[in-house]
Amino acid sequence: MCHPSWGRARAEAQRRSDLTRLRRVRDRMDREYAQPLDVEALARGANMSAGHLSRQFRLAYGESPYAYLMTRRIERAMALLRRGDLSVTDVCFAVGCSSLGTFSTRFTELVGMSPSAYRACTARQAVEMPACVAKQVTRPVRNREARVAEPQLA
């Protein structure tokens, strides 16, 4: 019969192993955000099932792998839109989204304005601040927390 502390030690070792694999998955999403990534492919790369990866990722990072990936893509899209030399469609495909409608909807949810409105608004503002400051100030908000402008009543 095993000592009770051995079971706890084994569970702790498994938890650490899972966290290491989750960090690798997150790092892969950060590096390869423009590639077509899905949970099944990410799970295979981490030697986990898709369901286990999704559950553990949400426990560790507070959001699903898909939500994390989309936030990274929107963050990169914001940087490209601030440059002002690419169209919204070009930016959509450059960050790995295959649907302009889904990209625009998710962008609006996270940022609080459409990609074209963001591009028009920030193109002139970005000239006035250093890129490192712009990146921090304009970081997208996760989990639909962006404030939506309320309609003005006359």
How does this structure look, described?
- The chain is mostly helical and 154 residues long.
- It is built from eight helices and no strands.
- Helix 2 (39-45) crosses helix 3 and helix 4 packs across helix 7 (115-126).
Report strand %. under 5%
Oligomer: single chain
**What is the total tally of β strands?**
0
Helix proportion range: 55-70%
> What structural category do the secondary elements indicate?
mainly alpha
Q: What is the string of SSEs from the N terminus onward?
A: HHHHHHHH
Shape: elongated
Task: Flag low-confidence runs.
Answer: 143-148
Counting H and I runs of at least 4 residues, what is the number of helices? 8
Briefly summarize what is shown:
The chain is mainly α and 154 residues long.
Present the secondary structure layout.
Layout: H1 4-31, H2 39-45, H3 50-61, H4 65-83, H5 88-94, H6 100-111, H7 115-126, H8 131-137
Helix pairs in contact: 2-3, 4-7
Features:
mainly alpha
